[in-house]
Design a protein that fits this description.
- By secondary structure, this protein is of the alpha/beta class.
- It has nine helices and seven strands.
- It has helices at residues 28-41, 43-54, 72-80, 93-105, 145-154, 185-203, 214-220, 241-258, 264-274, and strands at 62-66, 85-90, 112-116, 130-136, 156-172, 224-235, 290-300.
- It has a seven-stranded mixed β-sheet, sandwiched between helices.
- Helix 4 (93-105) links the parallel strand 2 and strand 3 (112-116).
- Helix 2 packs across helix 3.
- The longest helix is centred in the middle third of the chain and has 19 residues, at 185-203.
- The protein starts with 27 loop residues before the first helix and ends with a strand.
C-alpha cells in the first residue's frame, strides 16, 4: 500500500492515479517515483497536519505509519518527533526499501524500522503498542474499514492517538476555462474518478459498504475525543518545474486510465495539455497551479 494524492480518494506518502486501464489493481512499486514526488510536493500540507497532531501527541515513544508507501511522511514524523521510534508498515517490500533508504539518507536509521505485510493483521507483529498510528489515505484500500480501525485501536497504548487522513476536496491544477475545449474538464475527470473509486472499493477482498462518517467510525472503535481538521496545499501560479512535472504525470495517468471513456474533445484537450511542445500545455502555460485540501480525523484511546 502506498500514499496517493491528487483527488480526494487517493493514498498518501505519497501518488496520483489508482491504476492503469479500467481495472482496479494497483502496481505500487511501479508508482513509487510518482508517489515520492507527490509526497515531497505535498510536504507543506503534511507538516501542518503533523504539527496539529503534535499539540496533543507530545512525546510519543512509537509512531506507526500504516500504509507508509516509500516513507516520505514516515520520515517527516521522525524529524518532527526526534525522541520517537518510527515504524513504516506497508504491503509492498520495494516501497519499504525506499523508505529505509530515505531514513538512512536523512539520519534517522537508528530509530526507523519497517514491517512488511497486509494491514491490519501485520500490526500484530509490533513489539509493543504504539503511541501514534497514522493511516494516510491507506484505509480506503482495506475492504472492512470499520474492522481495520478497531484493529488499529487495539494496537494503541493507553492514551495513544489514531489519526486517519481520508477525504477532503479534489485537487485543482487548471483554470475552469482553458481557452480551448469545453470548460470544466477537471470536474468531468472527478466524476470518472469517483466511479473508479467505487469499483475499486467493491473489488477489495471482504469489501463492506460503510458510511464515511470518520468521527463515528473512530468512536465505534472505542476511541474518544474525536476531532477533524482539513489542511490546505496552495502552490499558486506560475507553478514551479517540480509542480508542473507532478501535474503532467497526474494528468497523464488520468488520460491513460480514462482516455477511451472521455469524449473526443476532452481527449484532444488532454493531449494538448500534455504536449511538451504546446505553449498551451501544462509545461509552459503560466496559469497552472496546485490547490488541494486533505482532512485528518483523530481520536484517543482511553487511559
Amino acid at each position: 500500500m502506498a500514499h496517493e494524492q491528487h483527488e480526494q480518494h487517493q493514498h498518501d506518502g505519497s501518488g496520483h492515479g489508482h491504476g492503469h486501464g479500467h481495472g482496479t489493481e494497483i502496481d505500487w512499486a511501479e508508482m513509487a517515483p510518482h508517489l515520492e514526488a507527490q509526497a515531497e510536493l505535498f510536504t507543506p500540507l503534511y507538516e501542518k497536519a503533523l504539527s496539529w497532531l503534535g499539540k496533543e501527541v507530545t512525546e510519543p515513544g512509537l509512531i506507526v505509519d500504516a500504509g507508509s508507501g516509500p516513507g516520505v511522511v514516515s520520515c517527516l514524523f521522525a524529524e518532527m518527533f526526534p525522541g520517537a521510534r518510527v515504524m513504516a508498515v506497508d504491503g509492498s517490500g520495494p516501497l519499504l526499501e525506499r523508505a529505509q533508504a530515505r531514513a538512512g539518507r536523512l539520519g534517522h536509521a537508528d530509530r526507523f524500522g519497517t514491517l512488511t505485510g497486509e494491514l491490519p493483521e501485520v500490526l500484530d507483529q509490533l513489539d509493543y503498542p504504539a503511541d501514534l498510528i497514522w493511516a494516510g489515505r491507506s484505509l480506503h484500500h482495506l475492504g472492512d474499514q470499520r474492522a481495520a480501525l478497531a484493529a488499529f485501536a487495539e494496537r494503541l497504548a493507553p492514551g495513544g492517538t489514531l489519526a486517519v487522513m481520508e477525504g477532503g476536496l479534489p485537487s485543482r491544477f487548471l483554470p475552469r476555462d482553458l481557452g480551448f475545449g469545453r470548460p470544466g474538464l477537471e470536474a468531468r475527470l472527478d466524476a470518472l474518478e469517483a466511479e473508479w473509486f467505487a469499483r475499486m472499493r467493491a473489488d477489495l477482498p471482504g469489501a463492506v459498504e460503510e458510511t464515511e462518517d470518520w468521527a463515528a467510525l473512530l468512536s465505534a472503535a472505542g476511541l474518544k475525543h474525536t476531532r477533524t481538521r482539513s489542511f490546505l496545499l496552495d502552490l499558486p501560479a506560475p507553478a514551479s518545474d517540480r509542480a508542473r512535472a507532478y501535474i503532467a504525470t497526474s494528468l497523464g495517468r488520468l488520460r491513460d486510465v480514462f482516455g477511451d471513456t472521455l469524449d473526443a474533445d476532452d481527449r484532444a484537450v488532454l493531449d494538448r495539455l500534455l504536449d511538451p511542445q504546446d505553449p498551451a500545455g501544462v509545461h509552459h502555460r503560466p496559469d497552472v497551479f496546485v490547490l488541494a485540501a486533505h482532512s485528518v480525523h483523530a481520536a484517543v484511546k482511553s487511559v
